[in-house]
Amino acid sequence: MPRSRGWGIVVFVLGILSTIQTVIVNTIGFADADTNSAFACGHQWLTCNGQIIPSLVSWQTLIEYSHRINVPILTALLLVTAIMGSWRYRKWPEIPILSAISIFFVLLEAFLGAIAVVWSEPPAVIATHFGVSLLAFSSVLLLTINIARIEAVREASLKSGRPLPIRKPLPNRSYRWWAWLSGPYIYIAMYVGAYISSSSTGGLFRGIPVPDESPSAPHHALLLDWLHRSLAGVLLVWVIVLFVRAVEMRHERRDLLFASSFALGFTVLQAFSGLLLVATHVSLPAFLIHVSVVTGLFGSLCFLAMQTLPPTKGKPVEEESAFVGAGTGSRA
Which UniProt keywords apply (predicted)? Predict the structure, then answer.
């Protein structure tokens, strides 16, 4: 957390609020999809059943309407965070780039959601919507984390009078490939899982821990079950390798050990939450637990990958920020 006063803490708090709001939007969206509430407002957007403020005749309508009103709140929070952050930390390339990526994915998520409401979309498109929602969360999370890290580095740079990097050099460059390739891999695994959920195939899954559905189960349930569990098994091995190699670099890069520990923890939880899904035949609580764990796993792997990038530095001592008013006594 930034220790400086003034606009540094303001931008950081806005980033925290944007991250929390992204979680709220995604969680309601996951519940929206699992409870088939997407069309509780009809095939209309922006209105809900022909009304700006609808009559909440059912809990499905409440879920869908709550999802709709939370999206513009997130958009407004993120825009303010991105504008202020990009100005204050304009000497650091991470913040303007992550701000642009965050806004892009949040707007794309809203656009795909609107399309899904106006037209009944196939499972493949709904799965894409799920993937974009996780990209939106991860980019907002990385934006907030980097704001905190840069603010801390700025403080240290002001004290030392020389520029300090936000990341240390990577002792083993091959680790960067392992970290970055984990992103596309888990995205494929998540897409398969989202496709299974949106096609209502998950409720047909049987067998703990090994699938034991009948080969004649509808919608190729046995094949999809084996595919999804196999992808999850390979992911577990992959993350274990990331963790073990991070342990070897723990003295030079404790941040990599921290991120890989989170990734390993989320991967283990993902396996157990997946078994819970099968045992409860995709109950809503089990589904929300599973997608929440997957969200945390994806975010931790994205952070791990970003930490393998080459170091970047800002100016050691910058001029007073334009955001800092007279009499605040805070440093830029």
Answer: Cell membrane, Disulfide bond, Heme biosynthesis, Iron, Membrane, Metal-binding, Oxidoreductase, Transmembrane, Transmembrane helix
